[in-house]
């Protein structure tokens, strides 16, 4: 299990380009589900890629259980992207076995069962719907029993019932595995439904505008109570979803900042 500490000073892609990320810092506790919410271009994917070791950290640090990130992440990490990124020439079963070559066939079948793909192990990705392919990518991510799971808008462009079913599957697996999760989305409803905490990012350069605990009981359904909670949050923080600074101070902006 992993505890993440993020303390970024700034990030840019080139010296002649504006900073994508400004100063931002936060902790993600072991087993916590944290969402990053903000408009397009606020550096959410950049930050996720930095945590995954795919993008350089020029100024600042990222720590995994106090261990400084310098190259490959020092823990078992799974990353679910917008696209399921399955190998088209491999069956569903083979796509899963690729990440865990030593896993017993029954373990793979059990994981497929959990994501609602019982009986689909011999199918090729092109024989599956978009939603089913994403189920495979969720199964693949959890099969390795990751300490840290990163997700970048994994349910975007799915129809509402499919996205809802996948969110439920994700939550069930997260509760079972107690994985630490960082989830990127621009959909506030999705973030409220899933997360323990939501971090709202400002537009360029990206910084944390608000670090908000979601204290609604689970399971969370989009009912009146849910909508009132959201309305209250937005009325207290106008401009939040546009990535603009409001007068309301962040509840715990500097939480974990070194
Ligand atoms: P978000 O995930 O919030 O939409 P991104 O992290 O994808 O934001 O992008 C933030 C900014 O960084 C955007 O202006 C984007 O064009 C730029 N950017 C992202 N990746 C690269 C890259 N590899 N090279 C140069 N600019 C990039």
UniProtKB/TrEMBL annotation:
It holds the Pfam family ABC_tran. InterPro entries: AAA+_ATPase, ABC_transporter-like_ATP-bd, ABC_transporter-like_CS, ABC_transporter_ATP-bind, P-loop_NTPase. Residues 6-228 form the ABC transporter domain. Keywords: ATP-binding, Nucleotide-binding, Transport. The keyword Isomerase does not apply. Belongs to the ABC transporter superfamily. GO terms for molecular function: ATP binding. PROSITE patterns: ABC_TRANSPORTER_1, ABC_TRANSPORTER_2. Gene3D superfamilies: P-loop containing nucleotide triphosphate hydrolases. This is ABC transporter ATP-binding protein.
């Amino acid at each position: 299990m992993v505890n993440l500490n993020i303390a970024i000073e700034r990030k840019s892609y080139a010296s002649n380009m504006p900073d994508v990320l400004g100063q931002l810092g936060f902790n993600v506790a072991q087993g916590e589900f944290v969402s990053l919410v903000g408009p397009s271009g606020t550096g959410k994917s950049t930050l996720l890629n930095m945590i995954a070791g795919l993008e350089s950290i020029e100024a600042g640090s990222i720590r995994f259980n106090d261990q400084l990130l310098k190259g490959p992440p020092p823990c078992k990490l799974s990353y679910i992207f917008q696209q399921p990124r399955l190998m088209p020439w491999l069956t569903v079963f083979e796509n899963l076995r690729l990440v865990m070559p030593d896993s017993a066939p029954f373990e793979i079948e059990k994981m497929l069962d959990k994501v609602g793909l019982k009986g689909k192990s011999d199918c090729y990705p092109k024989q599956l719907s978009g939603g089913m392919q994403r189920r495979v990518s969720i199964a693949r991510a959890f099969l390795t029993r990751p300490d840290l799971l990163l997700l970048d808008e994994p349910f975007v462009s799915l129809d509402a019932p499919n996205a809802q079913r996948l969110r439920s599957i994700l939550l069930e697996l997260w509760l079972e595995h107690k994985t630490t999760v960082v989830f990127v989305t621009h959909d506030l409803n999705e973030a409220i439904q899933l997360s323990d905490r939501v971090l709202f990012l400002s537009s360029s350069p990206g910084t944390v505008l608000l670090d908000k605990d979601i204290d609604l009981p689970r399971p969370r359904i989009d009912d009146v109570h849910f909508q009132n909670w959201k309305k209250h949050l937005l009325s207290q923080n106008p401009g939040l979803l546009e990535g603009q600074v409001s007068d309301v101070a962040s509840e715990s902006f500097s939480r974990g900042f070194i």
